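Page header: ASSEMBLY MODEL / two components / 612 residues total.
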Amino acid sequence: MAKAADGIGPDGIGPDWIGVDWQEARVCAHVIGPDGAVLETRTAPGGGTAAPAVIADLLKDLLPHAGSLPVIACGLPTFGVPGGAGAALRPLPCPPLPAVLHRVTGTDPRLALYAIPGLRQDRPVDELRGPETRIAGFLAGAPDFDGVLCLPGPISTWARISAGEVVTFTTTLTGEMFDLLAHRSSLRHGLPPDGHDGGQDPEAFKSALADILSRPERLATMLCALRGVGTHKRARLSRLSGLLIGAELAATRPWWLGQSVAVIGGGDLAQRYADALAAQGVQATISGANMTLAGLARARALLRGA
Amino acid sequence: MAKAADGIGPDGIGPDWIGVDWQEARVCAHVIGPDGAVLETRTAPGGGTAAPAVIADLLKDLLPHAGSLPVIACGLPTFGVPGGAGAALRPLPCPPLPAVLHRVTGTDPRLALYAIPGLRQDRPVDELRGPETRIAGFLAGAPDFDGVLCLPGPISTWARISAGEVVTFTTTLTGEMFDLLAHRSSLRHGLPPDGHDGGQDPEAFKSALADILSRPERLATMLCALRGVGTHKRARLSRLSGLLIGAELAATRPWWLGQSVAVIGGGDLAQRYADALAAQGVQATISGANMTLAGLARARALLRGA
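Prediction written out in full:
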């Protein structure tokens, strides 16, 4: 952290804005230079409720310089903050970002905090706080995209996009369930101690996927039967991943069947979703760049009036 | 604990045997008198691997008196104990208890430890460590039962019983998943802080059950949509319970449809299973007594040659 702070000095070379990605498990603050480069990334544990206070604390050494240094945040929690940051969710259908960003009031006056509002859907009732920014990042690079976006993560989101708007979405707890079952359930005794990366046994992943997609009603017994599957811990972990991603695909079938699908996300997880969709005859593209950062940058441009 | 130890003295009135119920979360040791009454129950955290050492420590003040004081345990873990306690699982079909109980070797010589072996099934591969004893307890009181036993718990077990034998079984992680989702997933923000008792809103439970049984492939999205269901936290918790028990019933349909079913377990949870089955047209009986203790007592009688 000290390294980047060195760049903030009387010569005027310093951060231009700060983008904050508030997630369940952690908060990331990206300090961005005038050329759009990330000068520094700071993190704090997430899960709390007093989001503006946590952000002010995370950036406290920058605040004396702040003045017009805008801080743009997505994913802000509202629980415990009545009418607070991010409270005004925008109803669908709508573009992922609003035309105007409002400054969050009631915080440290040196903190020029702008919250990207989440999206809400009435039927069925559900809400997004964060994925709308990743969607905005994707659409900044593909403004004419018409189809379905798959955003894997602790909570997976599937969103239908048309004419630059989010039309409808659905969510699953796939990533959270994978972590809980791998690390905290009695299945953990039969899984590798590191508990992640289910991509190491593609055959086990593939057969789990086929099993659950042909008998999705059997999820409960198939998960528990993992206690007895062979002796290879890695194969079990891949099977767990396959069962849960398969259960997600079973639940979201109308979202991908015969659709133009783009998977947003980096690394092995996005590839696994694309592989799973390919096994069902859907050729999805993968957009691996940091779409949250791209979406925050799009919001920064909005703030400038661009 | 001191109270019961007072009863162990030179007058010869003291424990007759000790029954140990080893579960994932905790170990219970029941000290039983000559008339079959529970003199005392001791507990220690479960989850460990060196089961005989934990049991010896839990009973250490009784061991000097031990000699012929038999300790009969069910549910013993084998992980980390190659060839150790409970390692020899018995293949199906078989009665829930073996004809002969073997003493566990390699432990404190004062500890006369007898392990009730678990059951194993080859197709599909799965195993029971503990439920076989509850089944034995139930069959001690209903030796002619022919049908399916439903044993709810952290891990739910469904077992087909015929002619006094366990013919086949299946398991689900329903109870563990309920606890993990209610306490440790992002759903917890919308649930009551105590996080248990989903029986408080019978309508929410019932409608969740109907929803999942009619569209079992939608579990992943229905669970995540709990984030948005109404504003009543208790209703959400009941819905979570209904979705997970419903998913269990969807996965185990051939086990209860048109079958004679007995639910083993006390309190609200067993009643919820019976209610769920009733909603599907199956009138299950409930056996609420402590069937683990009854099964351990049956094993004690076996040891005596009764």
